[in-house]
Amino acid sequence: MLKLKIPDHQVAGHQAKTGIIGPLIDDSGKFYKPLQDDGRGSHELAFYTSLYSDPRIPSNILNLFPNFHGTQVVEASDGSGLHPHLVMEDIAGNFTNPAVVDFKIGSRTWHPQSSEDYIRKCLKKDRESSSIKLGFRISGLRSVSPSNQCWQPQRKFLMDLSAEDVILMMKKFVSSDGNADEPDCVFASRVYVPVLEELLVLKKWFEVQTIFHFYSCSVLVVYEKDEKDEKRTARAVVKLVDFAHVVDAKGAIDHNFLGGLCSLIKFVKDVLAGLGDFEISNSKP
Amino acid sequence: MLKLKIPDHQVAGHQAKTGIIGPLIDDSGKFYKPLQDDGRGSHELAFYTSLYSDPRIPSNILNLFPNFHGTQVVEASDGSGLHPHLVMEDIAGNFTNPAVVDFKIGSRTWHPQSSEDYIRKCLKKDRESSSIKLGFRISGLRSVSPSNQCWQPQRKFLMDLSAEDVILMMKKFVSSDGNADEPDCVFASRVYVPVLEELLVLKKWFEVQTIFHFYSCSVLVVYEKDEKDEKRTARAVVKLVDFAHVVDAKGAIDHNFLGGLCSLIKFVKDVLAGLGDFEISNSKP
């Protein structure tokens, strides 16, 4: 039988707690996401199926999505019995000490076909968070310093950040200790230079693709904080995650995702521009 | 005393009718927009003042805004007496037979500081129109064929267009007779090649500018339909108009406008791509 455990590094989404089914991981780098009953699970399954069978998606774009391994019935995280799960790549699984941030992209997390009740709920959250203002919000982030100090700001705090707050969080994310008042940004260019490259690839595709509209979808960034792990320190990973609210594009580009993505790109550029030349050349791989 | 008249070519916004104050034009190419009492007029005035005094706005971007000539008190369009007006460039004023289209940009026409009542009204309109789906909506368009047939679809019809409908309207707009079932697209590349150029200039600025957020603002496109007027047939004009809902950017790019602008750019490209090579080379200036 599979030995599954609750992941340490999940920063957003439904988390495994007593009484709530959450995701699980195994030792071989797979992530098990419980199939939600309300149609979202089957919707995400349908998306993965169409994504990997659509010849219009270029391979450099497919690389930005997690590998998908179908569904599997496994024991739920709360021990309540067998439950179907989506099985995909555990993006943080290959890292010794992964630092993870989840940017939920788009100022609007609902699409026109949503129910009135769902729209009301999402709109409230979008207005109360930074989504409407910035075009995205930080859904979660987490890193552990070399001296084993965990930095994981509360979700409520992250919800409504100003532009300046986002810059500060993005700097702390690439600093040796997120809990320090003054971020040292030692990992800034090692992380944000490749992240910027990947986001620009994604932007180019979003400027033309009229296949999908991605609502409530996130850009996940993961990098290795354990500097002894040389294999992993080379490149930060960027992946799109959460596809329970992807809909048909109906002939238009996804202007909502694209706008938010361009906003995130500007923030990444601003963080990089704020570094001294020394820092950039010093922390390049 | 100034001789003012009601413009023929206005396609969107408040129009002069009996009992309603509308805009006026004079013979020297000026457009008089009544200063609205509810704060919108003074807001637009403040925007023009800050736009033309802000050294951060590059000159190629300033060219995309109408020239502004301050305010003037003139007789209102309904004859009800003197009223303050904003005085700006009459964009269609220099044309013999102008064809005009107004694209209201952005899937969201309200900003976070708006009143609950205003947000509710705008959101309803954004959802009922193509704004939410396409990132912009056509607020109005008008052209007069050489045989003097006026084509001006009703606002209600224009509100909720699908992607295919927008393509058709954009093709009719650059055809000799908009009323014909089959658009001949004879002006397509003469209009949309320079329009695309200007929109790409605008896009580049919106990817970086964190000065203004433009809500409920339009891109106006005007071209000369009178082919005898050789001076004017050279280049279509692109201008941003309507700044009653411009707010401070607070450190973020205008992802809402940028997303809608990118969507419009994709439509312009699609119309151009749909033309045969013959048509493109044949109708170039």
Automatic annotation (TrEMBL), chains A, B:
<keyword id="KW-0067">ATP-binding</keyword>
<dbReference type="Pfam" id="PF03770">
    <property type="entry name" value="IPK"/>
</dbReference>
<dbReference type="GO" id="GO:0005524">
    <property type="term" value="F:ATP binding"/>
</dbReference>
<dbReference type="InterPro" id="IPR038286">
    <property type="entry name" value="IPK_sf"/>
</dbReference>
<dbReference type="InterPro" id="IPR005522">
    <property type="entry name" value="IPK"/>
</dbReference>
<dbReference type="GO" id="GO:0005737">
    <property type="term" value="C:cytoplasm"/>
</dbReference>
<dbReference type="GO" id="GO:0008440">
    <property type="term" value="F:inositol-1,4,5-trisphosphate 3-kinase activity"/>
</dbReference>
<protein>
    <recommendedName>
        <fullName>Inositol polyphosphate multikinase</fullName>
        <ecNumber>2.7.1.140</ecNumber>
        <ecNumber>2.7.1.151</ecNumber>
    </recommendedName>
</protein>
<dbReference type="GO" id="GO:0032958">
    <property type="term" value="P:inositol phosphate biosynthetic process"/>
</dbReference>
<dbReference type="GO" id="GO:0051765">
    <property type="term" value="F:inositol tetrakisphosphate kinase activity"/>
</dbReference>
<dbReference type="GO" id="GO:0005634">
    <property type="term" value="C:nucleus"/>
</dbReference>
<comment type="similarity">
    <text>Belongs to the inositol phosphokinase (IPK) family.</text>
</comment>
<keyword id="KW-0808">Transferase</keyword>
<keyword id="KW-0547">Nucleotide-binding</keyword>
<keyword id="KW-0418">Kinase</keyword>
<comment type="function">
    <text>Inositol phosphate kinase with a broad substrate specificity.</text>
</comment>
